Amino acid sequence: MKDTNSEMMNSQNTPSTHSQNYQRNLMVNVRRPEIIKSVLAVCPDDLDQKSRLEWLQEKRCVGVWAQCSACEQYRFLADVHDPCALPRGKWTCADYPSLSCDVPKEEPSALEEEHFIQDAYNAGSVVRAKLDDCPWWPAMIDDDPNIETFYWLDGIGDQPLKYHVTFFDSREVTRAWVPASRIRRYVADKPPRVNTTIPDTMRLRLNVAERQAQQATKEKDLLKRLRKWSFVARYKGEIKAPKPVEELMPFIRRFMRQNPDKM
């Protein structure tokens, strides 16, 4: 988290470039139905880009399918919108008031099955993200306004390789794409160790970011959290409409080829 914010994005069309190291982050086995494409197909045409993204936030607040580690069946948890609300590691039917392993299993619809992704987070999940030469920084999983999604798949697997985050900060709102291996759940009472040599200005910003993240986690309603802390809520400039996908793909492919270690 450099003072210049050079490795983040606070404009509409500036990519983040930074190398990453690998770190495994164990999560509950959660499958979330990916409904973005079908939702956007019915998005009202008269919305500006900011309103369109807010509309998408609302439509995406759906439940998750979580796998019980005892009976190994997937259960649909309609009122759980944030996978981080589930316990880290193992989850069982007994953890959910209305369930037990004896309850017959539910079957996802064909549409849900087609669009399942192995997703540790949802838009609005509060996390810590690591950029080069910066401490682990409080952030929130959030949509990239350029491509209207918050994760990146490789086109083969169903597990996101990267997530788009918006950083908590006392300065102008910034955002970046970060490899999944460089993102952790946010745990307020277990902050990572911070290098004692970081500048005082950065330490002050980090303290503010910690307080903002704690404030955000107290709001359990994911939509309300997004309406206050998302990029579109905090960015003071114009949220421009994204370019057509066919125009963006050459840039995206070139970035991935030039930065293979960032995956």
From TrEMBL:
Keywords: Metal-binding, Zinc, Zinc-finger
Chain spans, region Disordered: 1-22
Pfam families xref list: PWWP, zf-CW
GO terms for MF: zinc ion binding
CW-type domain boundaries: 59-109
GO cellular component entries: nucleus
Database matches in InterPro entries: PWWP_dom (IPR000313), ZCWPW1/ZCWPW2 (IPR042778), Znf_CW (IPR011124)
Transmembrane parts of this sequence: none
Domain PWWP: 123-189
Name the record gives this protein: Zinc finger CW-type PWWP domain protein 1
